[in-house]
Amino acid sequence: GSEKLQAAACCCMQNLAAIDRDTRRRLVAQGAIKGAAMVLSRTTSTTAAAAACGIAQNLAVDPEFLPPLLDSEIPQELVGLCQRSKGMEDPTMPLAATLALLNMAAGG
Q1: Is residue 84 classed as helix, strand or coil in its secondary structure?
Q2: pLDDT tens-digit profile of 28-49?
Q3: Topology adopted by domain 2-106
Q4: What is residue 57's three-state secondary structure?
Q5: Domain boundaries of the chain, sorted by first residue
Q6: CA geometry: angle at 40 spanning 39 and 44, to 5°?
Q7: How many helices (H) and strands (E) does the chain have?
Q8: End-to-end C-alpha distance for the chain, whole angstroms
Q9: pTM for this prediction
Q10: Secondary structure (H, E, C), 9-32
């Protein structure tokens, strides 16, 4: 139950983070970065983890949100996710993590 709810919430936040800067500001002000980091560190749901990566990916396209992203635990969690996913048949999580890291590296 809670994994599905977590995945749904992350998917909603991922979609909201793609809308515009004002929406991203509101999400960040309401704790989206900390929440995404927590999901990345704790979830066992592929869907929730991929959506949390998507939140980071969508925030990272905007230079305004790079400092709070880089100051959070998200980069470390994304790298850890890539490391843990070696040998997994489903490439969804490592691909999502890699795309988020690439957006951060590109600097928005």
Answers
A1: helix
A2: 999 999 999 999 999 888 899 9
A3: Leucine-rich Repeat Variant (1.25.10)
A4: helix
A5: 2-106
A6: 80
A7: 7, 0
A8: 35
A9: 0.91
A10: HHHHHHHHHCCCHHHHHHHHHCCH
Token digits of residue 81 = 């996710």
Whole-number pLDDT of residue 108: 62
pLDDT tens by residue, 6-20: 999 999 999 999 999
Six-digit token string for 77: 């969690």
| Tally of residues, the chain | 108
pLDDT at 27 over 90: yes
Virtual torsion, Cα 77, 72, 61, 103, nearest 10 deg = -40
At 45, which amino acid appears? S
Residue with tokens 């927590």: 38
Structure tokens at 49: 């983890």
